[in-house]
Automatic annotation (TrEMBL):
Tagged with keyword Coiled coil: yes
Sorted UniProt keywords: Coiled coil
Domain of life (superkingdom): Eukaryota
Entry keyword annotation includes Coiled coil: yes
Protein name: STX8 protein
Span of domain T-SNARE coiled-coil homology: 148-183
Length: 183
């Protein structure tokens, strides 16, 4: 996550962004280990611990933000900006948790391999591609379970997006009400 200039002076926000970046790197490393058949147990422990640490930092940021807004240390507009940044971190945390639980390549990796797989092999008909390693050997029930998990991850992302959009709608309505009152 990129730092927002208004939050760049907050070490807790910086630390949370750093932890999120480290978790993403550890998940990629774990996935690489798994593809090579190496043990990833140590990395799983580190990732789980780091995800918990990230959750605690996000909770602390929320508390600090709530206090700053309620005691008028910052303006409502600044509070809303910071809330959006905290929401972005929360969304990132949910994505990282989903990637961690998936214990496979991140969705972006899967998507890019699906899009380029036919071109790399020189096959133009996507139905002629070999079955991927992720699904090879899985039964119908396992495939359905994998599909449900992917849908749940997408639903979690949509829920986070929905809350951000509803807050922006509320902000827009409040701005409109304030303009009406001022006029």
């Amino acid at each position: 996550a990129q730092l927002h200039p208004l939050l760049s002076r907050l070490p807790l926000y910086d630390a949370a962004c750093q932890v999120a970046q480290e978790v993403a790197e550890k998940i990629q490393e774990r996935n690489r280990y798994q593809r090579n058949g190496e043990s990833s147990a140590k990395l799983n422990v580190i990732i789980r611990s780091s995800l918990q640490n990230l959750g605690e930092k996000i909770d602390q940021l929320r508390d600090l933000l709530l206090r700053a807004v309620s005691t008028h240390q910052i303006t409502q507009l600044e509070g809303d900006r910071r809330q959006n940044l905290v929401d972005d971190l929360l969304t990132r945390q949910k994505q990282l948790q989903a990637s961690y639980k998936n214990e496979g390549p991140e969705p972006d990796v899967i998507r890019s391999s699906l899009m380029t797989g036919g071109v790399k092999r020189g096959v133009t008909n996507p139905w002629l591609l070999e079955e991927s390693e992720e699904t090879r050997g899985l039964g119908f029930g396992d495939l359905r379970q994998q599909q449900r998990r992917i849908i749940e991850e997408q639903d979690a992302g949509l829920d986070a997006l929905s809350s951000i959009i509803s807050r922006q709608k509320q902000m827009g309505q409040e701005i409109g009400n304030e303009l009406d009152e001022q006029n």
